Amino acid sequence: MRRRLGDRLLFGYVWLVMLWLFLPIAVMIVFGFNDTQSKSNVSWQGFTLKWWGRLGDYPELLDAVYNSISIALIATLITTVLGTLLGLALGRHRFRGQGATNLVMFAAISSPELVMGASLLSLFVSAGVQTGYRTIVIAHVLFSVSFVAVTVRARVVGLDPSVEEAARDLGASSWVTFWRITFPMILPGVVAGALLAFALSIDDFVITQFTSGATVTFPLWIYGAVRIGIPPQVNIVGTCIFAVGVLIAVVNSVTARRRATA
Amino acid sequence: MDLRTSPAFLRGMTQNRHPSRRDALRLAGLSAAGLALAACGVQGQRVAPPAQDAVAGYWSGKKKNGALRFANWPLYIDKDGSKYPSLEKFTAESGIKVTYQEPIQDMTTWFGKIQPLLAANQDIGYDLMVMTNGIHLGRAIDLGYLVPLDHAKLPNFAANASPSVKNPVWDKNNTYTIPWTVGVTGIAYNPKYVDGDITSIQELWNPKYKGKIGMMLDVQEVANFGMFALGIDPDKSVQADWEKAAAKLQEQRDAGLVRKYYENDYVDALVRGDIWITMAWSGDIFQQITEGENLRFVVPEEGGTIWTDNMCIPKTAQNPVDALTLMDYVYRPEIAQMLVEYINYITPVPATKDLVLAHAGQEKGEDRKFLEEVAASPLIYPSDADLARLRSYKSLSSAEEKVYEGLFQPITQG
Amino acid sequence: MKRLTPYLLILPGGLWLVVFLVVPLIFMVSVSTQQGDVVNGFVQTFHIANYTDALGQYRTQFLRSAVYGLVGTVLAILLAYPVAYWIAFRGGARKSTYLLLVLLPFFVSFVLRTVSWKFLLADDGIVFEPLKSAGLLPADFHVLQTTTAVIGGLVYNYLPFMILPIYVALERVDPSVVEAAQDLYASRVAAFARIVLPLSLPGVFAGVLMTFVPMTSDYVNAAILGGPDNTMIGNIIQTEYLVNQDYPVGAALSFTLMAALLVGIFGYARALGTQNVLEAAAR
What is this model's ipTM? Predict the structure, then answer.
């Protein structure tokens, strides 16, 4: 009996925590459908779909979302290439300086975003570089490249080198071996890394704020709008990004399970 | 979304081989070498002020380009869905296409954004912007960041602007700026929680409202209120007065009376009931009242602050003639009327009052009531008695500015 | 050629990391001893007093950040451990689904999550208004702009960084070992204390590292949920850099913060008896 009671208590506790975790999300989604009249969205006035048709009321918000997405895509592309190369080098080769590379990568993963942002801005003001769209991309590649490298390295280390050896024995050049054999095998790691980089970029606030200059991304726009009241359109965009994220995660886990069982 | 915790990544982390101490030392050596390289300073931004005949020099040869990029504060223009009727009318008449954006939230941040660009003579992305009189506008003028206006092209301003907005102390003869709107900083409160009519600024120090009092983050705003509370006229104040005012404000903060030092978000906080009584801008509160919120706004008997948001052209503007055209256009009474009916701040064009009343006569029901409220509101057309109690921000030299900020900033941002 | 391959592979990424991570840190140190203002420019004068001045003026905010980080981390362990435990040992075949469920809220933008809390906790908002009209709470009761709100926000926002590492550690514990231990010690509590807990500690240690650092250097929660007496060191650094444009003070503060965190992390690793930080994080 005691055993059951303990389990039940644990179960209840876990669901309380879950409730706490979901409360603000539910509120965000629900208030995107609030039929508010005033310019700020503060109390429940009834259900409406009208905000979906009025996303264009805030052209700056749409610009910000566009910036967020395009920055995330560009940064992901660069990050994935650089990170995959790093991951390959670290997973496949032994070389002098490997330790230093690991140290720098670990520093990039673990240093506080605030310090990274502050030091990047110190560099940019000292060198007279105007902050803006390009510096945001630079910063996003910086903080996500190590994540991609680590993810790819995990995949590379787990590979069976004999497959590549066999290909080479059969006369394939190393270029052909890489694209035909190695790359398809590490692809899941590369994709996982790219998703990670995209997710990190699209949600980043702190480093972006330090390196953005006059460019505004979605999180920056929300932060600015806190001062004037958040319109329901923000809830809607937030809900959409949430939905896309959930979709990616679900597809990811389903395909992973299928791979595992196949 | 944050996938930093994704299983694929964690799997990778768990295979981490840690770097040796030798690697760390080698990195430290590399850093020392780089430090020598980084020992240079950060470049200054000062530029020479413009010459006397700058107006003619600047405007000669400038042409209309048919495009205009306008930077304004949020909710600061008439809006119908996603359209701006007054701007559409402007485009239809003049052929100038307006890109209207709302990137300005407060002066400090805005100036921080444009200042490096203007210092480097780069385009800030806008041809016309709205800046509040005060430290930053003064700095922009001193640093030669603004284009001197050609008043020959501003006939509507000359004919229709209220005498009270012409030739302000911070910009003699409107050399660089003309007003967009004028506003008042006073006290707003929620009668649900605050009993009786509030008239005194001392209510902001009333322990009854502990933790429910809102003050402003802006140094000049908060400093003026500290001085009003002590019966000091900001215009005539000296450093000793500022020190007293700072002490008064510090006392208010230390007693736990102040909930937060707000930017524009005080409106939300007031509507949500987070604060009951607060420093406030007249137009914000008027808008909330017309949306049905039960709020009051008063100019305290000890005094309130009057400020002006001014249109000005940055020196790197690509379409200055188009900007100047719009500046004059909004001084046409019927256009100023469209603006005031939406913005609800004090309009620089007094002739709009009769136009708003006439418009009210054509409307029915809610709309009519609203327009009548606008025309009758002391927040939009203030009485002489109110105006007599209003003071501007203190004009400061750059040396005074440092002292002033040093005194008040630790209170609001410490 | 073969020997050069790894160097060619790390060249682009490595260069990026050096130019935009290592070099900027050096520039930050350089800026931190400069003097001047943004209009006239900053000049390198090796003005060490920037550090003593900044530390003297903002000691409170430094201490406050450390306390918030510590309290937040402890709360995060208390919330995360049971959840991770339940998923790892009671999740059965649906383990990964439950894990995904727990992480779902974090697919919403960080700033938006925090704003949502501000909305929920409003004095007359959807949570407190009914309680107040029912007379269960006094009219001036509030959570926003208090320490509770800020620490609550910190814990909420960084919880997954605690749940995940603990879960990964627990998941590696072989259930049959636990069963054997239960037979051996005949008490679930004893089995947990002697077997499961020690095996999961590396996960907790990693979680502490992954939450304490970002919590301590956070400024978004204090800015959105906090009041005048909740200002953290991150808020000061952000203001000095982006609002006042007083780069030397900002740089001195953020270098001090980084140094303090490094010392803290190394001290923590030493106390755990691990050789260095990485082991705790990477176990």
Answer: 0.92
Tokens 């296409």 label which residue? B97
Put simply, the answer to whether A130 touches B267 (Cβ < 8 Å) is no
**Taking CB atoms and an 8 Å limit, are C40 and B45 in contact across chains?**
yes
B189 and B224 fall within a common domain:
yes
pTM of the model: 0.87
Spell out the per-residue pLDDT of chain C, length 283, in tens. 577 889 999 999 999 999 999 999 999 999 999 998 777 788 999 999 999 998 998 999 999 999 999 999 999 999 999 999 999 988 888 888 888 888 888 888 899 999 999 999 989 888 898 899 899 999 889 999 999 999 999 999 999 999 999 998 998 888 888 888 878 876 788 888 888 898 899 889 889 988 999 999 999 999 999 999 999 999 999 989 988 788 999 999 999 999 999 898 888 877 775 444 444 444 3
Integer CA distances (angstroms), B368 to B293, B362, B374, in order: 18, 8, 10
Put residue B273 in one of left, alpha, beta given phi > 0 → left and psi -120 to 50 → alpha: left
CATH code, C128: 1.10.3720.10
In chain A, whose CA is at the least distance from the CA of C100? A249
**β-pairing verdict for C34-37 and B67-71:** unpaired
Q: Which of residues 26-65 of C touch B (CB under 8 A)?
A: 26-27, 29-31, 34, 36, 38-44, 57
Are residues C106 and B1, on separate chains, in Cβ contact within 8 Å?
Answer: yes
Q: Shortest Cα distance from A10 to chain C (angstroms)?
A: 7
B240 within domain boundaries: yes
B39/C44 CB distance under 8 A: yes
In a domain, B130, yes or no: yes
Half-sphere CA count of B76, side-chain side, radius 13 A: 24
Under DSSP, the state recorded for C48 is T
Asked if residue C113 is part of any domain, the answer here is yes
Q: Does B193 touch chain A (CB under 8 A)?
A: no
Measured between beta carbons, the chain B residues lying within 8 angstroms of A42 are: 268, 271-272
Domain contains B376: no
For residue B299, what are the domain limits?
183-306+389-413
Q: Are residues B264 and B393 in the same domain?
A: yes
B195 plus B231 within the same structural domain:
yes
Question: B314 and B302, same structural domain?
Answer: no
Q: Is residue B190 part of a domain?
A: yes
Same domain, residue pair B205 and B95: no
Domain-by-domain residue ranges, chain A? 57-230
Q: Cβ–Cβ of A126/B13 closer than 8 Å?
A: no
**In which region does residue B75 sit, left (phi positive, over 0), alpha (psi from -120 to 50) or beta (all else)?**
left
Task: Please answer yes or no on whether B1 and A241 come within 8 Å at the CB atom.
Answer: yes
- Kind of pairing between the strands at B178-189 and B296-298: antiparallel
Residue with tokens 């020099």: B57
Residue C262, H or E segment? helix C247-272
Give the CATH number for residue B282: 3.40.190.10
Domain boundary among B297, B318, B349: B349
List chain A residues with CB under 8 Å of C250: 118
Is C108–A14 a contact, with Cβ atoms under 8 angstroms apart?
no
The reply to whether C18 touches chain A by the CB within 8 Å rule is: yes
For the domain made up of A57-230, give the CATH fold.
Answer: MetI-like fold (1.10.3720)
Same domain, B58 and B176: yes
- Residue C218 phi, psi dihedral angles, 5° rounding: -75, 150
